[in-house]
Predict the structure.
Amino acid sequence: QVQLVESGGGLVQPGGSLRLSCAASGITFKLYVMSWYRQAPGKARELVANISSSGGTTNVASVVKGRFTISRDSAKSTLWLQMNSLKPEDTGMYYCNARGDYTDLNYWGQGTQVTVSS
């Protein structure tokens, strides 16, 4: 059974930091491109960042570039998102996604809520 379990969300003041984690099980983690998506109320889900199966290539959305960093540890089957200088517009549900690098397999976590507010 595939599980992607996100953690680390919460309430933070503007300018603060959070580190999200996604623990994967039931998949061969090193064979998956991993991504973070987010969805704000009333808005479509959007890609925040992704990282190649090897970890050698990362892409970060322009709206968070310079503030967010994505990383992974295949030995621990864990994905992270370090979020610094948080803004109210970063508020939303953050989802972990695993997409097979050589297959069409695609999995989602249940999400973790991030709220940036004073």
